[in-house]
Design goal:
Layout: E1 2-6, E2 16-22, E3 29-30, E4 35-40, E5 45-49, E6 54-58, E7 65-67, E8 71-77, H1 84-93, E9 98-107, E10 117-123, E11 129-131, E12 136-141, E13 146-150, E14 155-159, E15 166-168, E16 172-180, E17 186-187, H2 211-220, H3 238-243, H4 280-295, E18 298-306, H5 308-325, H6 331-345, E19 351-354, E20 357-360, E21 366-368, E22 370-372, E23 375-377, E24 380-381, H7 389-404, H8 410-413, E25 418-422, E26 441-445, E27 449-455, E28 458-472, H9 478-493, H10 496-500
Parallel strand pairs: 21-25, 25-26
Antiparallel strand pairs: 1-8, 2-4, 2-7, 3-6, 4-5, 6-8, 9-16, 10-12, 10-15, 11-14, 11-17, 12-13, 14-16, 18-28, 19-20, 21-24, 22-23, 26-28, 27-28
Length: 502
C-alpha cells in the first residue's frame, strides 16, 4: 500500500511552492509526522511532515516548483514501528498530561471597531508544543496596533495559519487538543528512530540552516559550523543568520619581501544595526504603491505658482478668520477649492477605471495625505466642492488629529476621487507623487521658496511653489492634464476667482 503526499494548501493566494530541500533521501524509512522536506513560497518557508510511516519515494526534486495539490512524494506504508523505548520514555515524561478528546478551534478575535482583518506576525509556540491556559502563543497585527494571542485552554497546539498571512476576523488560527494536567514548555510529539534523543539532544535539525538562513550565510561567507541555532531542535533560523557576523581571522596573511605588510586602520565609531518588523500598515502601503507603478501608465507634469496673492490675503484676514471660525486659514483650503473647480471643468482627472469602463464622478471627494506615526494615511473630505473655506479647514484639522492619534475609521479612509499631498511641509522642492489607486491623479504641493521671476519685463522676487500632477495616461490625455494644472495655477494666483467661481 502506498500513500501519495501532495503539496498542502499553505495560505490564501499561494498557488505554488518550491522544493527548498529534502531532509530525507529516496528509499529512506520515515516515521509519521517526521519532517522530510522544506517548502518555500513567496511569503514563507514551511516544513513538510510525513503523513504516515514507511519508505520514502521522492517524485519532485529540490528546486522544482510544484502547484498546490501536486504530488511531491510517495510513502510505501511499512509495518515497521517506532522504537518502543523512545515512545515509552516520552509517554512517561508526559504521563501527567492526558487528552480529554476535545479539540478547541481558536479563531481571529475581534480586536477593535472597524478592523476587519489582521496579520499573523509570529508564533511563540510550534505545532506539537504543550501550551497552558492564557499562555501567549502568537502575536497578531492590525493596521493600528499589535495584540498578543493567548491559549484559551491547556493542551497540544496545532498551527493552522502561517506567519505573515493576512486573515479576516473569525478565521481559523490554530487548534488545541485539550489536555488535563498539561505542563508548559514541553512537547507530547513522540521522538522516534535515531533522529532525536528523548532527552532533547541533537537531531537532523541541529545546526541545520533553513533555506532563508542558508542564503544569508552564503552571502556573508559564514559556515554553519560556527553557529548554534535557536530554532526548533537547534535549527539555524533566519534571525540567527542575520545576527551572525563573519569571524575575523586571528592570523595575519604572510607577507612578501616585495610588499611589506601595512596595518589596516581600525574603523572608529558605533556600527550597530537595528531591525524592526514591518507593520501591517507599512506592508499594505508597500503593496499598493508597487501595484500602482506596475498597473498604471503614470506620467507627471509640472508647473509653478506665485503664492504672493494668497499669502497677502492670509496675512490680511487670518486674525479675523480665526476669531470668527475658531480655525486657522491655511493653504490647504485654497488648494482644495481650486482643485474642485478644476476637476469639474476637466472631469477625466476626477475619473477612474473599473474593468472596461471609465467612471466619471460628479462630486469631489478630496483625499488628504497625512503623515501618521505608523505611516502615510489618506483620509477623505467628502463633497469638498460644496464646502466653504472654513468648513474645509475644520475638516482638515479634524482628520489630521484623528490620523495622528490612530483613530481614523475605515470609512474615513476609503473612497476619494482625487488626492492632495503636501511634501513642502518637510522641505521638499519637487517630487513625482504616486497615484492613490483607484484614483487617476494626485497633486503634489512643495515648499515655498523666494525666487527671481520676470513680471512685465522686470525681474522681481516672488514666493514660488512647484506643483506636480501625476496622472494615469490611460484615462487622462496630455492636453487635459496640462490644462487642469494651468487652471489650478490661475485660480491660486488670483484667489478672487475662487470666491466668484470664474
Amino acid at each position: 500500500m502506498s500513500l501519495e503526499m501532495k503539496v498542502p494548501s499553505v495560505g490564501e493566494s499561494i498557488s505554488e511552492v518550491t522544493i527548498a530541500q529534502w531532509l530525507k533521501s529516496d528509499g529512506d524509512y520515515v516515521e509519521m509526522d517526521e519532517v522530510i522536506a522544506e517548502l518555500e513560497s513567496d511569503k514563507a518557508t514551511f516544513e513538510l511532515p510525513a503523513e504516515t510511516s514507511g519508505i520514502l519515494r521522492i517524485k519532485a526534486n529540490e528546486g522544482d516548483t510544484v502547484e498546490i495539490g501536486g504530488i511531491i512524494c510517495v510513502i510505501e506504508v511499512s509495518e515497521q514501528t517506532p522504537q518502543k523505548e523512545a515512545v515509552s520514555a516520552v509517554q512517561t515524561e508526559s504521563a501527567s498530561a492526558t487528552e480529554t478528546g476535545e479539540v478547541l478551534e481558536m479563531l481571529v478575535p475581534t480586536v477593535g471597531e472597524s478592523i476587519n482583518e489582521v496579520t499573523l506576525s509570529s508564533w511563540s509556540k510550534n505545532t506539537g508544543d504543550v501550551v497552558e491556559l492564557d499562555e501567549v502563543i502568537a502575536e497578531i497585527e492590525s493596521d493600528k496596533a499589535t495584540f498578543e494571542l493567548t491559549a484559551e485552554k491547556p493542551g497540544v497546539l496545532e498551527v493552522i495559519a502561517q506567519e505573515g498571512e493576512t486573515l479576516e476576523i473569525g478565521a481559523l488560527l490554530c487548534k488545541i487538543k485539550v489536555m488535563t494536567g498539561a505542563a508548559s514548555n514541553s512537547s507530547v510529539a513522540p521522538v522516534v528512530g535515531n533522529q532525536a534523543s528523548v532527552s532533547g539532544g541533537e537531531s537532523y535539525a541541529t545546526g541545520h540552516a533553513s533555506p532563508a538562513a542558508s542564503k544569508i550565510l552564503n552571502e556573508r561567507g559564514i559556515n554553519t559550523n560556527d553557529l548554534s541555532g535557536t530554532g526548533k531542535e537547534g535549527r539555524i533560523t533566519k534571525e540567527d543568520a542575520l545576527k551572525a557576523s563573519k569571524p575575523v581571522p586571528t592570523t595575519k596573511p604572510a607577507s612578501t619581501a616585495q610588499a611589506p605588510t601595512q596595518e589596516v586602520p581600525a574603523v572608529g565609531g558605533v556600527r550597530g544595526q537595528r531591525r524592526k518588523k514591518m507593520t501591517s500598515l507599512r506592508k499594505t502601503i508597500s503593496k499598493r504603491l508597487v501595484s500602482v507603478k506596475n498597473e498604471t501608465a503614470m506620467l507627471t507634469t509640472f508647473n509653478e505658482v506665485n503664492m504672493q496673492p494668497i499669502m497677502e490675503l492670509r496675512k490680511k484676514y487670518k486674525e479675523s478668520f480665526k476669531e470668527k471660525y475658531e480655525v486657522g486659514l491655511g493653504f490647504m483650503s485654497f488648494f482644495t477649492k481650486a482643485c474642485c473647480m478644476a476637476l469639474q471643468e476637466w472631469p477625466a482627472v476626477n475619473a477612474m477605471i473599473d474593468g472596461d469602463e471609465i467612471v466619471y464622478n460628479d462630486y469631489c471627494d478630496i483625499s488628504i495625505a497625512v503623515s501618521a506615526p505608523k505611516g502615510l494615511v489618506v483620509p477623505v473630505i467628502r463633497n469638498a466642492e460644496n464646502l466653504s473655506f472654513e468648513q474645509v479647514e475644520k475638516e482638515v484639522v479634524r482628520l489630521a488629529v484623528k490620523a495622528r492619534e490612530g483613530k481614523l475609521s475605515i470609512d474615513e479612509m476609503t473612497g476619494g476621487t482625487f488626492t492632495l499631498t503636501n511634501g513642502g511641509i518637510f522641505g521638499s522642492m519637487m517630487s513625482t507623487p504616486i497615484i492613490n489607486s483607484p484614483q487617476s491623479a494626485i497633486l503634489g504641493m512643495h515648499n515655498i521658496v523666494e525666487r527671481a521671476v520676470v513680471e512685465n519685463g522686470e525681474i522681481v522676487v516672488r514666493p514660488m511653489m512647484y506643483l506636480a500632477l501625476s496622472y494615469d495616461h490611460r484615462i487622462i490625455d496630455g492636453r487635459e492634464s496640462v490644462s487642469f494644472l494651468v487652471r489650478v495655477k490661475q485660480l491660486l494666483e488670483d484667489p478672487g476667482r475662487l470666491l466668484l467661481g470664474v
